[in-house]
Design brief:
The chain crosses the membrane at residues 46-65, 86-105, 154-173, 185-206, 218-235, 242-260, 266-285, 371-393. This protein is of the alpha/beta class. It folds into 2 domains: 21-387, no CATH class; 440-648 and 660-685, 3-Layer(aba) Sandwich (Rossmann fold). The chain has helices spanning 21-40, 47-70, 75-104, 110-121, 125-132, 149-172, 181-206, 208-213, 216-231, 239-259, 262-265, 272-284, 294-297, 300-307, 309-327, 334-364, 368-402, 483-486, 489-499, 527-535, 537-543, 567-578, 596-603, 607-610, 614-617, 622-626, 667-685; strands at residues 448-453, 462-468, 475-481, 501-507, 548-552, 583-586, 612-613, 634-637, 648-649, 652-653, 656-657. The strands form 3 sheets. The protein has a 7-stranded mixed sheet with strand order 1-2-4-3-5-6-8, with helices on both faces. It has a two-stranded antiparallel sheet with strand order 7-9. The protein has a two-stranded antiparallel sheet with strand order 10-11. The longest helix is centred in the middle third of the chain and has 35 residues, at 368-402.
Amino acid sequence: MPVLLEPSPTARSRPHLVRRPEIDGLRALAVALVVGYHVTTGQVSGGVDVFLALSGFFLVHSLLGQVERSGRVHPLTSITRTLSRLAPPAALVLAGTTAAGAFVLPETRWRELAGHLLTSATATENQHLVAESVDYAASNAIASPMQQFWSLSIQVQVLLAAPVVVAAGALLLRGPRRRFARPAAVLAVAAVTAASFAWSVVATRADQQVAYFSTLPRLWELGAGALVALVLGGVRPGRRAGVLLGWGAVVALVACGAVLDGAHAFPGWQAAWPVACALVLLVVADSGGRHGVHRLLGLRPLRWLGARSYALYLWHWPVLVLYLVHTGQEAPSVEGAVAVILLSLALAEATHRLVEQPASQRLRTLRPSRALGLVAAGMAPLLVLGAVTTVWIDREAARVAAAADDPDYPGAVALSAPVVATGGIPGVEPLPSLSVIRDDHPFMPGAECTVADDPPDAAPTQTEMCFLGSDDRERRVVIVGDSHAAHWLSPLADLAEDHQWQLVSLIRAGCSLSTQSEFFEEGTPGYEGCVAWQSRLTERIVSLQPDLVVTVGTRTAYGTDEERLPPGFLEAWQQLSDAGLPVIAMRDSPRHLQDVPDCVAQWGDAADRCGTPRSWVYTDGLLEAAEAVLPTGVSLVDTSSWFCTDDLCPPLVGNVWVYRDDGHVTGTYMRTVRSLMEEEFLMRVGW
């Protein structure tokens, strides 16, 4: 995203307020790449990495200028100048996105909208995305319309902390020690940059999705820009070298997004490509003479776009996401892409002229304390709106929990009635409410969980184990596998409490009880960690000495696939069988071709639109054929009648919504499954 500080560098050692037009052109090129790649391919272009490097470059010139002029830094003044330019456009974009999102987004995404509003307004959006384990390569249609604030959050965190750190350093280097200020700054920035780069490589390899949005793995990009300002501020290449380096850097930067898989490889060492391009262009400046790249970057249209790059970066993402949600598309058409870009440019121009420039100029004339008060007052309504919405949604969630035993919500029991009626009850609103349905996860209430780091190896990983009930209970049941195995946490927790079993969960998203990775392809993020987790799984289960292991038994159809029993499942069950452990494998729950809650929000509970034919989900005869190859002690339970009629897997059963997305079952519905599964489950285990 665009840099937050105005440039003030020259080739002289002492900063002076001279604007370099080629830097505006570089900003324009970077934001054009970001917008172009997002709108056309959904890929990562490297443009954000350019802006991070530029932020570090200008931060040094701003802070070092204060130190060299007065021997100290005024943190409040520096922070005020940053927020004076940043906050007003951001507040406008957040307000506009919230208003538009309330109309365009289905009710199922209101909690998400409120959460991202709060974190975007408080410069913690990157941490929020880390907590959500967001995949940047996922469809833009399902992304938050405020997701672009992740990079702004990183910059704000650094730009607000840096003046305080530099001010403290300036105090230590007063008087005779002042001559050591620049060497000390170079050493400190170099050390932080090197450490951050090393950590970026390690963190990206361990968990790329987390590293992508985290501050520490990105800090080196700002540090690289800062080092150029500190060390190479007065260095310029010769004319011929300037021409070659300048044009080469532009070509390499444009090619970056097409050559590198930034969504899966950044911010590790590959992010050095766009950062290096930006740094080369900063050093080259106008040294190429009349053939230099600065002649291109200094063109009036690019300078115009560069001046509006901040507003354009903020606006293009919500315009794109809301357009895709409104049209129901995964990617825009050519006409749609043009419309998104033109509307984003119009909003950026209006924001730049009517908000960014006048607000920044006005706020900078005020005392820092008063300016910060106005900034806080501008953000306060957004924070209140986000907080009030979150409280309302939490109350809805509490209402769902309180209705668990309400006869108006029979859920799965309705499928066993003499006359099957899968819909709702007239005059009674179904549960869970669509505003909280995304968060209605199955869980084990009262369980105690621990997270253990596995021994370091080529692919270190973590294992979470949750225990419901004490070790002295008569039976121990272990439920293990991915998020579809986690569906059974709620009914099994109820059974465990009634029958005094200890229930232990070993759940990892995307990782089945299997000898093979079922979802992660080799070389993709998450693959190595999943394989490492699976490789130790049998040993970990055996060490618990359970009386029974429960897991998922098949993989239901998805898209053009058919329901199947993966070979890796059978191999893992054989290992448990060899260890003398009985296994109950639950037939997988249905998967759908569309997001069921979003469909319901648009069309109601119309079964023909939001349900899925049973024949698309389940393969007739699969369980009978599987009986011949099941290892000793493994029992495969047919659960299909707990979710589907003979013809349809509906979205609403017994006045309870069944699915919280395209394939995961709500916790509320799974609690109603317990009464259907208890008799057969106890018969299978023989207890």
